[in-house]
Design a protein that fits this description.
Blueprint (H helix, E strand, L loop, with lengths): L14 H6 L3 H10 L2 E5 L11 E5 L2 H8 L5 E2 L15 H7 L10 H9 L5 H27 L22 E3 H6 L1 H10 L7 H12 L10 H24 L5 H6 L9 H14 L2 H16 L1 H10 L4 H9 L4 E6 L3 E3 L2 E3 L4 E5 H4 L35 H18 L4 E2 L4 E2 L8 E3 L1 E3 L2
Parallel strand pairs: 2-8
Antiparallel strand pairs: 1-2, 3-5, 4-12, 5-8, 6-7, 9-12, 10-11
The structure holds protoporphyrin IX containing FE.
Length: about 425
């Protein structure tokens, strides 16, 4: 079905398209003329057997799909709309061991256990360590920038790309944005300091496989995932033997209804390493870019630090552009008949710019309130478990930046990540000022 005004073959999960931009004009067209639209996909591009999905672009419909798991399954085809074409059916089946891809009642059981680690109290418990880490990350970037001009810069970031610092400029992504989300996950699950570099390496290998620049093949990504799962399982087994009063010990203490098995813990850590890493990193990178391209908002932030800023950064960035569900029965949505088994793509990036809900959505406004964005999901059972942690990380890193590097300016256009469901920036050169 062709949508008038959209180019032939338009697909908002096309990595080549997302490499260049988020298709906001096309989303606007779809919201107006075909809010539930069948997007045909050429055979063999997605890892799935069928050849298309319903693209859902209005805020109200994205919420509806998210909050009706009985009609829209996360498990039948997993939450990712377009896997790399090389993924096998077996690999897709393995993905279903991750809670993001589970349905109730299995999902409810796991969620009830793991949310113990994400209570307001647990997040408050991490705050002071994360504040120091945020401060250290920014002061290191500052020191390196001050030493700039020094031949060769100060070395790379944790994702293996160079973070060199010629002439006072540095790559904000590798120097700053990458660091705190990884350190927060390590802190959360109590990874010993000496093992952190390994966790960071595995995490980074798992997220960038759609981007040829990183030269991460499907095999390297899968191997990193297996190594990370193995590591987490060992950590769980250790804590089961010798509980340490940390979150891992709580989640695995004694196997049974109320706890995770070591395997389940392994897959949970795998999910955290993807869900909590690349997402928050991109919120921070887009947030910095937004501030530097809207200097009046940066000035306002430095002056007033509004508590609403982090939510607007997430709305503006919408790091997860879309996830999918699969219809469990014939159902109607937006005037379309969705057949049982059809895949349904829910486009958070479009919902977050829906003028039915947001006044002047094209404005970056850190005082926006209310801000009912769907960047963390549409409010159903899978709503982002790490939301409070992510918001805390964003607050802490921008507080540190405003204090330590208030004069930052842009030193180049951002280089975008090639990916099918992430709005990613892989390089953002800034000048310390
Ligand atoms: C789920 C976004 C940070 C852990 C999700 C979902 C989205 C999302 C869109 C799916 C919601 C749905 O299907 O309804 C984000 C964004 C983040 C972020 C934009 C940063 C700005 C984090 C962090 C963690 C985390 C820091 C943990 C360290 C999870 C988990 C799930 C999830 C475990 C799966 C929940 C479930 O299936 O029940 N996130 N997330 N996320 N997120 Fe986040």
């Amino acid at each position: 079905m062709r949508c008038p005004g959209l180019p032939e073959g338009f697909d908002a999960t096309d990595p080549d398209l997302l490499h260049a931009r988020v298709p906001h004009p096309e989303f606007a067209r779809l919201r107006q003329t075909a809010p539930v639209w069948w997007c045909a996909q050429p055979p063999g591009v997605t890892g799935f057997a069928d050849e298309g999905y319903w693209a859902v672009t209005r805020h109200a419909d994205v919420k509806y799909v998210s909050t009706h798991p009985e009609l829209f399954s996360s498990n039948a085809n997993t939450a990712v709309i377009r896997f790399n074409e090389h993924i096998s059916r077996d690999q897709i089946e393995v993905q279903k061991l991750i809670m993001l891809n589970m349905d109730p009642p299995e999902h409810s059981r796991v969620r009830q256990i793991v949310q113990r680690g994400f209570t307001p109290r647990a997040i408050r418990g991490l705050e002071s360590a994360l504040r120091s880490r945020a401060r250290a990350i920014v002061t290191e970037a500052k020191a390196a920038a001050a030493a700039a001009g020094g031949a060769g810069g100060a070395g790379g970031g944790t994702n293996g790309t160079p973070g060199g610092i010629p002439g006072g400029t540095f790559d904000f992504v590798t120097r700053v944005a990458v660091e705190l989300p990884l350190q927060a996950i390590a802190e959360l699950i109590g990874v010993p300091q000496e093992d952190r570099a390994r966790i960071f390496d595995w995490s980074n290998k798992m997220v960038a496989y759609d981007d040829p620049e990183y030269a991460i093949t499907e095999e390297i990504g899968a191997e990193a995932a297996m190594e990370l799962i193995g590591y987490a399982m060992n950590l769980a087994a250790d804590r089961k033997k010798c509980p340490a009063g940390d979150i891992v010990s709580q989640l695995v203490a004694a196997e049974g209804q109320g706890n995770l098995s070591s395997d389940e813990f392994g897959f949970f850590v795998l999910l955290l390493a993807v869900a909590g890493n690349e997402t928050t990193r991109n919120a921070i990178s887009h947030g910095m870019h937004a501030f530097l391209t809207h200097p009046e908002q940066w000035e306002l932030y430095k002056r007033e630090r509004p508590a609403t800023a982090a939510e607007e950064i997430v709305r503006w960035a919408t790091p997860v552009t879309a996830f999918q569900r699969t219809a469990t029965q014939d159902t109607e949505l937006g005037g379309q008949l969705i057949r049982q088994g059809d895949r349904v793509g829910i486009f958070y990036s479009s919902a977050n710019n829906d003028p039915e809900v947001f006044d002047r959505p094209e404005l970056f406004d850190i005082t926006r309130d209310p801000n009912p964005h769907l960047g963390f999901g549409g409010g159903g059972p899978h709503f982002c478990l790490g939301k409070s942690l992510a918001v805390k990380e964003i607050d802490l890193i921008f507080e540190a930046l405003a204090d330590e590097l208030p004069g930052l300016t842009l030193a180049g256009e951002p280089r975008r990540l090639r990916a099918s469901w992430l709005n990613g920036i892989k390089e953002l050169q800034v000048r310390a000022g």
